[in-house]
């Protein structure tokens, strides 16, 4: 009995020891399982993106560039020029007058011509000196060639009276692509500033004449013709030595709306290659008022070019006279003419006249005689002694014209301002 109880007790202890050991192992296994990392998904987890910083885009550097201007002098339509344009069918065409300027007209941005003689209406008939009336077909040729500015304030603007002046101004309304300045159909337009836009820049182009070939300004054309010289408001008597206050007033007004102010005065002493004292005085007053460029016409011969600096620091480039463009005059020096070429350089902050590629290109007006007819306009660089010997001025005007005469006049008057065609057109090698 005792032996049986002892067996039962030993068995109970064994069972208790087994259960205790198993519990420890199970707890340990649970702890190990709990410590293992748990993975819910096999998909990769993307990191939280950082804030995107935009790349800095640099603005392209400003590219400097040029705006160019060309101007020719007096388009003086004598009867020999009128007849030169007559076609076989009786019509008139003057495109040939500008054919040799084609490359320059294609290159320049601003293209100016001084139409010396009035286009008063073909119904009035055509006439030459002293009271001109020129065919409107001349105006058509000017526009078709590509000129975009025509000057009409000249001493011949009133040759056909107020009706001729108004007819001329109305004619240019048929060519809205051309800025016509100097005369007005309505005197209410007298104070308007003619403007030409080139890209982002505005150019004011002002045109005045010393008078209408008389010592007084007729009341009928006051307000229709821009006057360079002062005149008495009662009698109309012109003071040829005093600048019209309207000129400086216009320049100051133009300066407020335009980037560049160009003044084109019809002034000076005919056939004199030096500027008069009043030209110089007027140029100084225009410069002081704010003119940037002065291009003169009327003397029928070329005159010098110079920079003018006013006491207030303003500075302007002055071409005192470009001479003629077309004529059949009998004066040898009048056959030499100049085409102004002005380069405006544009930077990011300014526009100004450049010393580079600014000056004049000398040309020669060539006509024949028997009958007198315009033959061509040549660059002086391309003119020859053979051409000079055949010039109509020899038999017609009794003038012995030589190539060396033209070259010497160009050197003496125009000097270092002379440019080659290649310099202007950018075809010369640097």
Describe the SSE topology:
Blueprint: H1 2-35, E1 65-75, H2 79-84, H3 102-107, E2 110-114, H4 136-145, E3 149-151, H5 161-171, E4 179-181, E5 195-198, E6 201-209, E7 229-231, E8 238-243, H6 245-257, E9 260-266, H7 277-289, E10 293-295, E11 305-309, E12 315-319, E13 324-326, E14 336-346, E15 351-353, E16 359-368, E17 373-379, H8 385-389, H9 393-397, H10 403-414, H11 421-425
Parallel strand pairs: 1-2, 1-13, 2-3, 3-4, 6-9, 9-10, 10-12
Antiparallel strand pairs: 1-14, 5-6, 7-8, 11-12, 14-15, 14-16, 16-17
Beta-strand share of residues: 15-25%
Distance between the termini: 136 Å
Main pleated-sheet profile? 9 strands, mixed
Global shape = globular
Number of strands: 17
The overall pLDDT, averaged over residues, is 90
What does this structure look like?
- With 430 residues, the chain is α/β, with parallel strands linked by helices.
- The protein contains eleven helices and 17 strands.
- It has helices spanning 2-35, 79-84, 102-107, 136-145, 161-171, 245-257, 277-289, 385-389, 393-397, 403-414, 421-425, and strands at 65-75, 110-114, 149-151, 179-181, 195-198, 201-209, 229-231, 238-243, 260-266, 293-295, 305-309, 315-319, 324-326, 336-346, 351-353, 359-368, 373-379.
- Strands 1, 2, 3, 4, 13, 14, 15, 16 and 17 form a nine-stranded mixed β-sheet that branches.
- The protein starts with a helix and ends in a 5-residue tail after the last helix.
- The relative contact order is 0.11.
